[in-house]
Amino acid sequence: MLEPSSSEEEDDDIGSSFNSGFNGGSSHLEPPGGVHQNGGPPRVPSPMSVDGSMAKIGGGRGQENRGRVDGRGSPSPSLVSEKTLTEAELQEKQQKEEEERKTRIQLYVFVLRAIAYPFNAKQPNDMTKRHQKVTKEGLEKLRAKVDSFLKGETQIPCDEAFQNAVHSYNDIFLKSERVTGLVNGGGLSQHDCRDVFKHQIEKRIRTIPEIDGLSKDTVMTSWLAKYDAITKDDEQRRPGQRLPTAMLGNEVMTKEQLYDLFQQILNIKKFEHQLLYNAMQLDSMDEQAAAIRRELDARREKVAMMEKDRRLMPKFVLKDMEGLYIEEMNAAINLLKGNLESLPVQQGAAKEGKIKFGKIKPGKRRSSMLSRSQSSLSRGAPDEADDSHVAQLSKSDVVLTFQIEVVVLEVRNLKSVPPNRIIYCTMEVGNSDKLATDQVEASKPYWDTQGDFSTTHCLPVVKVKLYSENPGMLSLDDKELGKVVINPTPLSSKAPEWYKATVSKGSQDQELKIKVAVRMDKPMNMKHCGYLYAMGKTVWKKWKKRYFVLVQVSQYTFAICSYKEKKSDPSEMLQLDGYTVDYIEPAGDLEGGKFFFNTVREGDSVLFATEDEQDSHNWVMAFYRATGQAHKPAPPVTTAKTTSLNKNQGDADRARKHGMEEYIAADPIDFDHHKLFSKLQCLSLDWRLGDPFASLGWFTPGQVYVLDEFCARYGVRGCYRHLCYLSDLLDKCEKHTVIDPTLIHFSYAYCASHVHGNRPDGVGTVTQEEKEKFQEIKERLRVQLEYQLTNFRFCFPFGRPEGALKSTLSLLERVLMKDISTPVPQNEVRSVIKKSLENAALVNYERLSEEARIEADLANPQEDMVGEVIIPPARKLEDLIRLADLCVDLLRQNEEFYAEAFAWFSDLLVEHSEIFWSLFAVDMDSVLSEQPPDTWDSFPLFQILNDYLRADDNLKNGKFHQHLREIFAPQVVRYVDLMESSIAQSIHKGFEKEKWEIKGNGCATSEDLFWKLDALQSFIRDLHWPDPEFGNHLNQRLKMMACDMIESCIQRTYNCFEMQLKKGILLNPTDYVLPSEICAMVNVVLDAKNQSLKLCAVDGVDVHKYHTKIDDMIEKTSANMRIQLVGKLVSVLDKTLSKLGAYDEGSMMGSFLSFANKKINVTGTGTDLGKSYVSFVRINMDTVTKRIADDLWVLNVMEKWYIDQVELLSKWLTERLDKSLHPYQCTCLAHIVKKIYTEYELQGLEEDRLQCGQYQAIEQRMATEEATCALTNAEATENGEDSDDEKRKKSVQKSKMKKEESREDGAKVQRQSSKAPPPPVREESSDTEVDSEDEKPKKQKAKAKPKPKEKEKQQQPPSQTGKDESDFDSIEDGGKIPMAAAGAVKDALATGGVDKVADIGKESVAQAGKMLTKGIGGFAGKAFGSFF
Known about the structure:
The protein is about 55% helix and about 10% strand. By secondary structure, the chain is α+β, with helices and mostly antiparallel strands.
């Protein structure tokens, strides 16, 4: 909108642009998204039609811009080239435009009068503030700003949560087509956008968990501040810049702003306004008040004519209303008259009190004297008495009070006093107190001070005297040097003038002059004054010149009074009630006066004359305004040229020149103000809807003010006014402009109460035209409301405007009422709303289906194909799922934004949702029927729909929900059947091919099984099946299936476990390492225990008793595995103890081995065997700990293993209580007992478990045996015998010496030593090395295990490594070697039969004695040594 200071051409463009919208079809707006393209509900034909001149609104000049309405409309039909029109059509068009222009100018004249002198209405200051609306360009800018923020192009800091909120706001709200439609209708404000964002983030913030020290209100405030920063307007108004008129939509306007506003509304140019303003004397309150009085008199006369001739009245619905109509008209005129009388005529005329001071300070400057006081015309003064009914005024009624300002400026030609003498001036008016100026030196006689006086004399006398200060000490009075006497009037010049002072005779100051400025203000009730010649019959009977004053006593009472000098009361006066004034020809027999006029009343006349023609014109116009006569006096035509030209007359001539005189002089009583007001209101509404505010049809305070004043002043009926307003609003609604339903409700309620005779102020008249028009509007309004309810998502997108839908429902209930007092039956309202919502379901689904189809086409573009395009079923299902998402979002928005409005009809909204889903069900059934069998891509569709429906208490278990269950129940059953079969087959095939490698918490087959069972149960659980019975059935079946599958898995695993354990231990038992396959099997059973709680129980509760069953089986299997595994490990100790049993005291085998070991150290020391067993324990402990996942199960295994070992050791020692242990046995067992305690302590066994009674007994026994062995070794040393260790060292040294002597035969020795496997002896040769290994078990475990044969080679003592047959010859005394026995032992060792070797040993006992006596047992000793 351009500013008021723009040029005339710009104003013309603005006005023409507004008018262009009022021609038919020129401002048609495209319907918003989702609204049918038929332009809204059909118009009901009107039984009435406005006449042609009033129906064609718009036109005028500036046709080149008529194709736009504030830049929003489509091209106007008026833009059709004039070349296509015929000459007659072009002439007709120009004639219509000219008629339109005349109508607008005439209407503007009436508006100007209403603005210039309002006395009925005032601007409302309590109207709801309207926010600036979002235009198409503004919406694009807002979207661009939000996109820029989301791309990170702004400097606004944010977190991920806020960015997600803005992203959702952008996708859901800003990019919605419904929002675009709302913007096209002018119903979206920036405040609405912020409110929607606030509503969305409130929901998000509610879901955020509480954070200590950060309240949710703080987060809300921070997010809103960031939103404001994102959407901040870049174009800021400069400080001090004047707002254009269009931006004053919420402000109270001044008169100048109102003039500019209606210039734009009515397309009036600036120069036309100036011509009208000056010619109509809009700045003259007297002229405007006189015009009002004339209008009221004319209306009273018209009422009188109607009373005489009833045919002049409009047609009423009842004949008896004619008399009531006359009363209403008279009451309206009296009300206007009373309002006019209530305006004070003396407001601001007098100042309270007098200013009395001795000397005036020079602070008040002369500029204040020249400023005129401004009068206020505000209402609020108490009503005055109606003075028009007073028969005779008294002189006290016309007393005037004048304010006189006297300023003494300078003195000239002062010669009688020396230059340094002090002088000053005094001022007085009549008998008032004297005021004095400042004292100055005679050489500088200048002042700039002012004296204020108040007097009731119309011809006051102002005296100014000049004094010099008397220098004498005893002098009392100052010397008067001169004085000036001035007789001012309100018409006197206000400029400073030189006045010659009166001085005493003989004074040197005969040319003394004083410069004085005198200003005498005219009171408000004084309309004109001056000198006139007058003569009448009852007053002023003698023709002479007198001073006259025209006084206004009230709005309807004036008096012409004559005054004498120094008198406050008039000498004579004449009340002007009933008089008329006019010019007359000069009277030749009277002396004095050249220009005559007279005032006439029946039986009386008064003749007046002036010396000046202009003065005569001024007096006549003052009398014309005072008498209120209809006839305006016209001055006589004179041939003589007058040099002085009245300003008003000049303005009138200029107006006449431009053709404005006919509009100014037009009598308002001759116009149909109802039609003029209808046009004015329509143009005002169009302008308001085009301004920058989202007004929704509400006028600005200034528009309401002017329209109210126009209606009151020109008698526009209230009902007709609101009917026209309703018609205009409905026209806008049908063009999809957003109108506030509350506004329509107000106007409709007023009209309904008027037509039905239930007005608050009593029964009024109702014309036939009003009744017919009301019925037409009622039907149109009903159709429009049903249309809006049917398209409520598009007419009120996202609940905007706020509260509009709720107001629409309330308005619908009012429209359906038969009359204003009888409430409409609730069933009738419900039936209308029900029908609308049924249609709304179809409209919404059709629009949503179309939107989904467009999205699908964009997501899957296809080339243009000729003929029918076949869409595959999978594509249809994808589209259906997308449509289901959109449907769920739509109904959630309905619940969020519209449920509150339909609170009283919530069941109808639920029914609307069911109808909506029934439409979707048709498409769903069609698409699902086309899907191939045994496909499960439709389950996401069920999840989307079921998750929404089960959360909605109104739709849960409804018709569509039941239909959904019936459709998908067979598919779910079929899916579970196939999954059960598939899982069973995977178990069978998986365990057949299982390699028992550790994977996850078990093996590959178990992991796959548990994953499938869990996925199946999770899938069925996520379906949230709505039917409890079927849901429980599915749950029970899945739990039972899981129980069976786990049981099968455990059974197969346990069978494989037993088979694996049956594999025997090879040659050396201490080399046995627990296979990883066994650990994998144990893990499978342990994982099954963990999975069974989840797969066989419901939320940790064994509802169906399946978990108890499978848990018992798992516990039993786990215990059996633990027992068998420990038994396998303990068997190694048993075999080790069997070896040691061969050294028992008193046995033949023990004696043989002891003797052989003393001679050649056949079996090594007992410490080596103990180390081998401890290494076995360590390795298998690490294997169990690392490869079995359940720490508790491992701990139980360790505990049982330890207890079984202790029991076995205790049993073995108990059997030998009566025997002493062989040193070999003692060293081996001592090492084992010490080390296993340490190893199991490291595994976490409790102290009380380790220090059991059996272990303590073993420990005591071993301490005793070790002491015995130490004593035996000491005795042997004393007897010169070497201990076993020393003998072994000597044997090793001897072997090394022989090895050096036979280096040349090294290759032969190596070949011979590789023929027989060496005995399993560890590499360590001392306890120190063993201890060091105990401290670093991890390094031992990391070593690669050699093969049995290689290990035996590595562990063979160096003393035995390269021996040949000559070694055996050196041990014995020359006896023969029993080769047969040695060969048998070697064969038994090769087959791995330990028991067989023992049997061979028993059979050879008899021969062994002979061998020992003959010294031929060396080879047999080596054979047994290789075994041990």
